[in-house]
Amino acid sequence: MLMFFAMPNAGFSQGTGKVSEKIPAGHATLELLKPALDKVLSPEGRFVLLPGSGEVMVIDFPDKVRAAREAVAALEIPPPRVALDFAFRTNVAPGMSKGQPVDSTGDFPFPTRYEPPRIVANGGNVFTVIPAHP
After folding, report:
1. Tell me: the pLDDT tens digits for 57-107?
2. Long-range contact list for 31-40, CB < 8 A, 24+ apart?
3. CB 53 within 8 A of CB 11
């Protein structure tokens, strides 16, 4: 026996004339998108921000979805700001200096030739292994 239940207002667009479309929004925030989309969507229109894909899904009548696409394209989205803090450590043997912040204006001290792994005897049965690096 196969049973089908339909629930009113469950988000289905069959028979309502509504369509859904994913519109590229880049890294636009909800605070930036909401006012622009609220102006162009119908009272029955809805949108969902899809942050993982950089898109916004708009569900409304075709002309309103088209207007939403144009509204998102017209937004002035500020460029993303990214800041990274890290330290680069070149020495791993005990007693050597700790990692130092890298000056981004200078040259990075990346190794330019292959160094094989080294084993340093520290006396007795204590050894320090310095891994290979390219």
Report:
1. 999 999 999 999 999 999 888 777 777 776 655 555 555 555 545 444 555
2. 32/75, 32/77, 33/72, 33/75, 36/71, 36/72, 36/74, 36/75, 37/68, 37/71, 37/72, 39/71, 40/64, 40/67, 40/68, 40/70, 40/71
3. no
How buried is 57 (Cβ within 10 angstroms: 0-12 exposed, 13-18 middle, 19+ buried)?
middle
SS3 38: helix
| CA 107 – CA 103 distance, rounded (Å) | 8
- pTM listed for this prediction: 0.50
Instruction: Report which residue type is found at 45.
Output: G
CA 55 to chain centre: 12
**3-state SS, residue 109:** coil
Q: Which domains does the chain have, with CATH numbers?
A: 19-74 (3.30.1370.120), 92-102+112-134 (no CATH)
Give whole-number Cα distances, 124 to 59, 69, 118, 120, 121, in Å.
73, 72, 17, 12, 8
Q: Which residues pair with 130 in a beta bridge?
A: 118
